[in-house]
Specification:
This protein is α/β, with parallel strands linked by helices. The protein contains 7 helices and 6 strands. It has one domain: Rossmann fold, CATH 3.40.50. It starts with a strand and ends in a 5-residue tail after the last helix. It binds 2-phosphoglyceric acid (2PG). GO terms for molecular function: phosphoglycerate mutase activity.
Length: 249
């Protein structure tokens, strides 16, 4: 029997802007108190299930970094090596960054809202470089191998994510390491789409809850041997339903 490889995906805990119901994207907001609690619980779930990461990959956004640190502290794994990449960042939400989701839904209607939020290849309008929510002059992206996005569809997220998956994450998995990836709702939707071979249409229905580890066992071709498994399935189902309903309250 060939040994399987273990991959853990963790969406950051609730952020200040999740709380305010604002489109966030690349805006670098922090976790709120509930998000910190979720991150701790995420780490406890890892410890309780004995699925302990050997290496960590995070985005360059503080909410993912904070989540990883808190979770790893709870699992007594703060010491593991870490690599961070903009390629794991949240989807850039273009001109929607900083906008209220409920107001956007009301202004543009459910069809356009869903198209911007969950379609595969329709990006929101581009964000002006002069906007306070633009990242074009953010020093952390000064050296990236590409242009700082002004907007992204899920397709564009997958296009910039997969080279990192292949060049940085897969080698760790192939070295037999248990890999933790701490990232975002839409960058993780992109990775799950790739792993599970979800169609461009069906991916619209997938929502990832905050703070609950999602574990995959992968074969020697890095294909999942079964569906991903949330370490707290009940909380995950409730969390995913809440994400799907955002804007409607
Ligand atoms: O605002 C965002 O950046 C994302 C994740 O919080 O939201 P949505 O779930 O609407 O894609």
């Amino acid at each position: 029997m060939t040994a399987t490889r273990t991959l853990i995906l963790l969406r950051h805990g609730r952020s200040e802007w999740n709380e305010l119901n604002l489109f966030t994207g690349w805006v670098d907001v922090r976790l709120n108190a509930q998000g910190e609690k979720e991150a701790r619980r995420g780490g406890e779930l890892l410890a309780e299930s004995g699925i302990l990461p050997d290496v960590l990959h995070t985005s360059l956004l503080s909410r993912a970094i904070q989540t990883a640190n808190i979770a790893l502290d709870a699992a007594d794994r703060l010491w593991i090596p870490v690599t961070r990449s903009w390629r794991l960042n949240e989807r850039h939400y273009g001109a929607l960054q900083g906008k209220d989701k409920a107001q956007t839904l009301e202004e543009f209607g459910p069809e356009q809202f869903q198209l911007w939020r969950r379609s595969f290849d329709v990006p929101p309008p581009v964000l002006d470089d002069e906007s306070e929510f633009s990242q074009v002059n953010d020093v952390r992206y000064a050296g990236i191998d590409g242009e700082v996005p002004r907007t992204e569809s899920l397709k564009l997220v997958i296009d910039r994510l997969l080279p990192y998956w292949e060049s940085a994450i897969v080698p760790d998995l192939e070295a037999g390491k248990t890999v933790l990836v701490t990232a975002h709702g839409n960058s993780l939707r992109g990775l799950v789409k790739h792993l599970e071979g979800i169609s461009d249409d069906d991916i619209a229905e997938l929502n990832i809850p905050t703070g609950i580890p999602l574990v995959y066992e992968l074969d020697e071709n890095n294909v999942p041997t079964g569906p991903g498994r949330y370490l707290d399935p009940e909380a995950a189902a409730a969390g995913a339903a809440a994400v799907a309903a955002q804007g409607k309250k």
